Amino acid sequence: MKVLTLNFLTCAVKSCKTSVDSFPLHPKDAELVSDDVELNPQLLVNLLPRIDWNALRTTATELGFPTLPEQPPTPEELQADEKMLQDLHKLLMETQISEGKLVCGACGHEYAVREGIANFLLPSHLV
Amino acid sequence: MLPTPSTSHVPYSRVYEPAEDSFLLLDTFSQDSETSFLSTRFPAGSSPTPLLLEVGPGSGVVLAFLTAHAATLLGRSDVLTLGVDVNWFACEAASETVRRTVGEVEAEAEGVAGQVDVGNGSGEKGVKPRKSQRRSGHLLATAQGDLASPLRPGAVDVLVFNPPYVPTDELPTLPKELADPTTATTTTTTTTTTTTTTTSNDSEKKKPVPKTTYAQESTLLALAYAGGRDGMEVTDRLLASLPEILSERGVAYVLLCAQNRPEEVKARVRAWESERGRWMAETVGSSGKKAGWERLQVVRIWREGV
Ligand SMILES: C[S@@+](CC[C@H](N)C(=O)[O-])C[C@H]1O[C@@H](n2cnc3c(N)ncnc32)[C@H](O)[C@@H]1O
Ligand SMILES: [Zn+2]
Q1: Does domain A3-126 have CATH number 2.20.25.10?
Q2: A11–chain B nearest CA distance, Å
Q3: Could you count the other beta carbons within 10 Å of the beta carbon of residue B235?
Q4: Could you read off the pLDDT of B76-95 as tens digits, one per residue?
């Protein structure tokens, strides 16, 4: 699963949906692999408004990527900033989590990731 | 006609094999009316990247089709796609189907763009190889889960669901060991291999092939078609989650069969309350006409006037 996925996922436990702590899920013991994807600046620019920047900063730091700036770049800034384009491209489009866990900050539930597939099925007492 | 993604690598003993319902979805998305609806709803260049979720991708035939042909079907290639299926083998199969199909489509686009002789008999030699435009969107992940439960509220722009729609007396439940087949592997393999297991090489250890029993496989296939009461038990849960899961501009495509009483389903959706705009439900594709009745249809659900 691409790291970018974490920006769209949350804990599957119903009562966690309204808790701010359930997003983003926190990777634990994550093994990362990298895909070769061609850089597409327009894709990253169109993606910006879809991204929860604070959550992405958290994810980047937790996975050991360089710290992202506090504020997201504007489309113009991003287009003109080759380094930022490269960094975001690598983090969002190329990096995959292949093994590990995703932990909910609200209920503590750990979702296993195996062979790149995260398992969000809940044990019956959490449904 | 866009080619149907190849799913010949998919283990059909555990994963739903593409059938009339799957093909109806491909046909529906290929129609001019649908491509123009989607490209108007998500205008390329001026609107944020759409996120597409297929619930229950099975073999991945529909997810691969939509991902690989995003530029044709949605009018843009900056489309992100996701699949969520209860069946782990479906998650694995679907992501492989998408990977292969995107690979083929992009290789072909490269080939055409890079061709020196355009091959139309004009003999235009010496045309400079140019870099091709990407045709495909990007698969983010496939994940094991129940319906759209792992998604953030309001995140999904296009949702596709070919549900288990056949009326049945009971709804199958996923056996515990199949909720996580990758860990079940070790116990299953040791019980099945009673003879000559002194050597096992490293590569086998790294990527265990989960084994399934015949009974488990029947359950996995039942999960793909058995819809309980009126064939609507799973679909009703998905429909109920739409107002929360779809973005304001979001649109869902849900396949129904005649026994699901599609007219009633559409009327129910249209009566949903909405703070902004109003809910719409229309049949946008159908197949298998029998005595004036459509056996299968695809219903599009969206908010107008938001
Ligand atoms: C009729 S098959 C459709 C497969 C594929 N989309 C196609 O069109 O060929 C239904 C799929 O939904 C999955 N499914 C059933 N119940 C589900 C649930 N509650 N959450 C997620 N997926 C589910 C099944 O495992 C199966 O892959
Ligand atoms: Zn939680």
Answers
A1: yes
A2: 6
A3: 22
A4: 999 999 999 999 999 999 99
Put simply, the answer to whether A121 touches B51 (Cβ < 8 Å) is no
Tell me what the mean pLDDT of segment B101-120 comes to: 74
More confident residue, B114 or A19: A19
Q: What is the C-alpha radius of gyration for chain A, rounded to an integer number of angstroms?
A: 15
Q: Two tokens at A7?
A: 């920006």
**Mean pLDDT for the stretch of residues B105-113:** 84
Task: Give me the DSSP letters along B48-68.
Answer: PPPEEEEES-TTSHHHHHHHH
Q: Looking at per-residue confidence, does A125 or B257 come out higher?
A: B257
Alpha carbons B277 and B229: distance in angstroms, whole number? 32
Alpha helices (H) along A1-127: 41-47, 53-62, 75-80, 82-88
Chain A residues within an 8 Å CB radius of B47: 46
Quick one: what percent of chain B has pLDDT higher than 70?
Answer: 82
User: Could B144 and A12 be called an inter-chain contact, meaning their C-beta atoms sit closer than 8 Å?
Assistant: no
Nearest to B296, CA basis, from B271, B259, B270, B269: B259
Name the closest-CA residue to atom 12, ligand 1.
B56
**Cβ contacts of A36 within 8 Å, gap of 6 or more:** A94
| B118 vs B234, residue with greater confidence | B234
List % helix, strand, coil for chain A (3-state, nearest 5): 40, 20, 35
Q: What is the A101 CA–ligand 1 centroid distance (Å)?
A: 25
Q: Which residues contact A95 (CB under 8 A, 6 or more apart)?
A: A2, A3, A32, A33, A34, A35, A63
Using the 8-state DSSP alphabet, how is residue B176 labeled? H
The interface predicted TM-score of the complex, written ipTM, equals 0.96
| Residue A82, min C-alpha distance to chain B (Å) | 19
| Residue given tokens 């044709």 in the structure block | B72
* A73 vs B276: CA distance, rounded Å: 30
Range name among A25-29, B66-70, B159-163, B174-178 with the lowest pLDDT average: B174-178
Query: For B162-168, what is the mean pLDDT?
Result: 97
